[in-house]
Design brief:
Strand order of the largest sheet: 1-4-5-3-2
Number of strands: 5
Oligomer: single chain
Number of helices: 5
Order of helices and strands: HEEEHHEEHH
Number of domains: 1
Largest sheet: 5 strands, antiparallel
Radius of gyration: 28 Å
Structural class: alpha+beta
Length: 208
Amino acid sequence: MKNTWVVPLVISAWLFVGCSSKNIVSTPQLNVKVVETIPNTSAPSWVNATTEFWEDKGFYYYRGTAEGMTNLEAAKRAGNASARTNMAEQVKSTIRSEFARALESGNYDENTGGYLKDVFFSAVDNLTVNGIVMQESYLQHLLESDSVQERMYYRAYVLARISVKDYNTVVRRAFSDTKEQVAANKSAKELVKETETRFWEQQGENKQ
């Protein structure tokens, strides 16, 4: 009885291996080549910066990117939109983080502190960040190809900036809006004043 099962099992195993090997699909190697840059120069240092958001000499900078568009003007618009939107979000994220750091460095009732943080974060989320400037752009016209097909598209890099002065204006509006919302809560009102003082102390005199 045992011998009667040997051949079918071997054949089944062979068929399984054969079918499995047919399902293995090799992925074509993808090659991307820069065929043109606008302007026709090597990439500025900010294009290859290791971080997308940084501060330098009185300004905050953000490098926005967008790619995939086959139209040059559409690529420029997408790059600008990316830089502006993400710069605003990064500014808000930084303000929230610095506020939390200032709040946590003081002594406060946990419930009041949690309430104040929620109010402040909500105030920041609803702010419009003014003063963002598109300082520079750099575009690459790319040829992407493999053994099957090829396509051309643009990759846009846009450098946005906002001055520390304008950044601070956003911060002050956030604190002002928060004070208005907690005016009826005495403990929260006092806490927001203390936190605002610590916030600016931690920023340093050069950011006042």
